[in-house]
Design brief:
Elements: H1 2-13, E1 20-25, E2 28-33, H2 34-38, E3 44-48, E4 58-64, E5 77-82, E6 87-91, H3 92-96, E7 102-107, E8 127-132, E9 148-154, H4 157-160, H5 175-186, H6 211-214, H7 217-225, H8 227-230, H9 248-261
Parallel strand pairs: 1-9
Antiparallel strand pairs: 1-2, 3-4, 4-7, 5-6, 5-9, 7-8
Helix pairs in contact: 5-9
């Protein structure tokens, strides 16, 4: 019995095994272990003044994401998939730029895990997309995916999911069209709509019903701004979208898109 306990203690004291990052960049695929990334020639220690996920300054060992995206051009579209099914849709151009805003892949060291994201929750590792000077390019919170397992190059959202598209007869600069762009930036990482999308975290926002149909307008706005103020449960994942992230005019446009799509259900 003592021998078994000794082995258990030894096992628990060992560092976590190296995680694997999968890159699927069209014709090329590559797997990077956390050890390989930590030893990457461009890896360096960086400081994040206000980390989106941890809500405090953080320090990471990280690699410029552009250094890992061989063959990706500014016109391409990328998707970062997390372990929990979160799927962030991102144009490649901001990810490739070297400043002033710059994307970094932070790598969790197996023997030095990051803090948990909350009580009973895991850390942001093993891989976390963070930004230095994010305000310089208007980087939004949904562009900070954590617990990343895969980054892949795909066709655009419009090409892959036509069921998300608003009526093509609408003017190009309509509030609904701008709301569709905001939906892609802020909602599609967690939610599907009309069954379209790759996310597996939140409910579909149009099937069987659209939230504009079953929420009073003031409560729907409150839900988007501060979900926990409207309904609480310990494992809630939806973040609030403050006015600094989603302005009142932008929220109006997002809701215009949702109301419009209530009439475009399959």
């Amino acid at each position: 019995m003592r021998h078994c306990l000794a082995l258990l203690v030894l096992f628990l004291s060992l560092p976590l095994s190296a995680a694997q990052l999968h890159l699927e960049l069209g014709a090329t695929t590559r797997q990077w272990s956390s050890a390989e990334l930590l030893d990457h020639p461009q890896a360096r220690d960086i400081s994040i003044d206000q980390d989106v996920s941890y809500k405090q300054p953080m320090h990471y060992r990280a690699v410029p994401l552009a250094a890992l995206l061989d063959g990706v051009s500014a016109n391409d579209h990328l998707q970062a998939v997390a372990l929990d099914g979160f799927a962030a849709e991102m144009p490649a151009a901001p990810l490739l730029q070297r400043g002033p805003a710059q994307a970094w892949l932070a790598v969790e060291e197996p023997g030095r895990p990051w803090p948990p994201l909350g009580q009973g929750k895991p850390s942001a590792g093993p891989f976390y997309l963070v930004w230095t000077a994010p305000q310089a390019s208007g980087i939004r919170p949904e562009q900070w995916p954590f617990q990343i397992s895969t980054i892949r190059k795909l066709a655009s959202v419009e090409a892959r999911f036509p069921a998300l598209l608003p009526d093509p007869k609408l003017p190009a600069d309509s509030p609904v069209g701008r709301g569709f762009a905001l939906f892609q930036q802020n909602c599609l990482a967690c939610h599907r709509l009309n069954g379209a999308g790759d996310a597996q975290v939140g409910p579909d926002l149009n099937v069987p019903h659209n939230p504009t149909e079953y929420f009073r307008p003031e409560y729907l706005r409150q839900l988007i701004r501060d979900p926990q103020s409207l309904r609480q449960w310990p494992q809630a994942k939806m973040p609030g979208f403050a006015k600094s992230v989603l302005s009142e005019p932008e929220l109006d446009e997002l809701l215009a898109y949702l109301r419009h799509m209530a009439g475009r259900r399959p």
